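Quick one:
INPUT:
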């Protein structure tokens, strides 16, 4: 197995959806890239679902990252995302108010994310990176999320 970061595992996440298509026909892809300590190797994880917008896909990418981190035995994570709403929710403390309001009016994926973080005893640091700005790992996460979206097969 590849030696990943021991003290803090760095993970880039991204989501992709075509928001111009009707939601029930919309395919969204998402990805999580686990970067090795020396930044020479990485592990890729991705998925795709029907009926999500790009914001929901970004959130699913973080959920996927947390699930995979737990499977791999990592508890201390640094999530790097190009979605400012997600990183700001934690970095600016919005999540505290949302918890107090029982996530009223929020996407249920926020509740799932919080349950994973709490039940898995995860420690997360959040960093925002500008999307499509040449950050190699972020560009890779975007490419993999798009690939997941574009290769998703709808079963009849």
């Amino acid at each position: 197995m590849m030696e990943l970061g021991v003290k803090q595992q760095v993970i880039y996440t991204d989501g992709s959806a075509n928001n111009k298509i009707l939601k029930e026909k919309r395919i969204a892809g998402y990805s999580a890239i686990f970067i090795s300590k020396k930044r020479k190797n990485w592990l890729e994880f991705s998925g795709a679902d029907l009926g999500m917008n790009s914001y929901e896909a970004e959130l699913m990418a973080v959920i996927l990252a947390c699930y995979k981190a737990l499977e791999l035995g990592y508890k201390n994570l640094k999530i790097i995302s190009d979605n400012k709403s997600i990183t700001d929710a934690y970095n600016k403390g919005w999540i505290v108010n949302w918890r107090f309001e029982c996530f009223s009016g929020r996407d249920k994926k926020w509740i799932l994310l919080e349950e994973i973080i709490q039940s898995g005893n995860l420690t997360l640091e959040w960093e925002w990176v500008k999307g499509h700005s040449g950050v190699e790992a972020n560009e890779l996460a975007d490419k993999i999320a798009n690939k997941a979206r574009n290769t998703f097969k709808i079963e009849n």
